[in-house]
Write a structure and sequence with these properties.
alpha/beta, 7-stranded mixed β-sheet, 17 strands, binds 4'-deoxy-4'-aminopyridoxal-5'-phosphate
Length: about 400
């Protein structure tokens, strides 16, 4: 689809082409100045509300000082951000790579894993999403969506994701199979989200204990665990980071999206410094726009607000409230409601019903998206007031 000379992906009706004219908190407006409650946060980006004034102001202040860094050096605000970010992550994750977006950071983590481990295989999970470049695509995504782009990156491939419905026996079988693969000692890294798939719109929850169990098995066979917290990070799931739900320490964690609340493009891989020390020269970890001082100012302020306001506490409570309200709708049209914090999936009877509800909701002033065709992935700004959430939920209820 081409609109205004810009190329868009054709979303085949899953989304509406949205000419965004302004945005504030939990509300967005189109170019006709129609107002919508936003249940997407731009897909887990504006967790602190659209155009958070404190974050935007931090960018303005930094613009008065310096906007660009050097490839071969550092800038005070970059150093400050690295210090503050590593201070809130597990102690072992003590070094950051400067990157610009989720995809780039995932690709960097894969490169580092190959160089560090001297192994080639990388494992992801089916129907997950880690980006649109060749290795990140090869990790997950939908088989048929990759056909025309093939061949992707050799030896990067997904296995089945053990979602919560597989039951104890199914989960044990998954762990056995997983261990068999890793016991070959040729897998450089496993890449996964932290207990929920946020990237491709299925909002599938992992079987409880998934992350800690695979952590153990990776450790046993010298495989690195890379956790993609592009969607789950920054209070989205009711903790500052998703890894905290099972107290797992990965070898690398990938952060983007909510990291700067949308005020600037920035991402990072935070990992154990021993890994980077070994791998950084051969992995060539440089990025011209990685961590511009402007982006660091946005990220620093974003982190400060999450910590100051303990945003995750509210996100957990509001998420519970949303699930409770939506669960009352389970019946002939709604099959299930589940989630972690304010990352919530509503599965409809089929794609047709999902589409009908989404379109009706849109016509009534609620902006929400379907990821997988029959699933609405609800991810409002975490700072949405109860009134705003109720307004959106009332619309959904009415549409059913
Ligand atoms: N990982 C996950 C879990 C994501 O949701 C996304 C984006 N939807 C990415 C990686 C890629 O991030 P970006 O679009 O910033 O490249």
């Amino acid at each position: 689809m081409i609109e205004n000379s810009i190329v868009y992906r054709e979303f085949k009706g899953k989304y509406d082409y949205f000419p965004l004219s302004r945005a504030d908190g939990a509300t967005i407006w189109d170019k006709e100045d129609r107002e919508y409650i936003d249940f997407t946060s731009g897909w887990n980006v504006t967790n602190l509300g659209w155009n958070n004034p404190e974050v935007n102001q931090a960018v303005i202040e930094q613009a008065k000082k310096n906007v660009q860094g050097l490839l071969w050096g550092s800038e005070p605000i970059q150093e400050e951000y690295a210090r503050q970010l590593t201070a809130v992550l597990p102690r072992e994750l003590d070094a950051c790579v400067k990157t610009t977006g989720g995809t780039e950071a995932v690709e960097v983590a894969i490169k580092v894993a190959r160089v560090y481990s001297n192994r080639k295989k990388i494992i992801g999970f089916k129907n997950s999403y880690h980006g649109q470049l060749f290795a990140s695509l090869a990790l997950g995504s939908i088989e048929k969506e990759r056909e025309k782009l093939a061949p992707l990156v050799p030896l990067v491939a997904p296995i089945d994701f053990p979602h919560e419905d597989i039951g104890q026996a199914g989960f044990e079988k998954f762990l056995d199979d997983f261990e068999k693969i890793l016991s070959q000692k040729d897998v450089a890294a496993v890449v996964t989200e932290a207990g929920i798939i946020t990237g491709w719109g299925s909002t599938l929850l992992a079987y409880p204990g998934f992350l800690s169990k695979i952590r153990e098995i990776c450790e046993k066979y010298g495989t690195l665990l890379i956790v993609d917290e592009v969607g789950t990070g920054f209070s989205r799931t009711g903790k500052l980071f998703g890894i905290q739900h099972e107290n797992v320490v990965p070898d690398m964690i990938v952060l983007a999206k909510g990291i700067s609340n949308g005020a600037s493009a920035i991402s990072t891989v935070v990992g154990k410094s021993a890994i980077f020390e070994d791998a950084f020269i051969d992995a060539v970890l440089i990025s011209t726009f990685g961590w511009t001082p402007l982006a660091c100012a946005a990220a620093l302020k974003t982190l400060e607000i999450h910590l100051r306001d303990k945003v995750w506490v509210d996100a957990a409570k509001k998420g519970k409230y949303i699930v409770e309200r939506l669960s009352k709708l389970v019946g002939d049209k709604v099959v299930s409601v589940r989630g972690m914090g304010m990352e919530i999936g509503v599965r409809f009877k089929d794609a047709e019903v999902a589409q009908m509800v989404r379109q009706k909701a849109f016509a009534n002033g609620l902006h929400a998206v379907l990821g997988q065709a029959d699933n609405m992935q609800i991810m409002p700004p975490l700072t949405s007031s109860h009134e705003e959430l109720d307004k959106g939920l009332d619309i959904l209820e009415k549409c059913l």
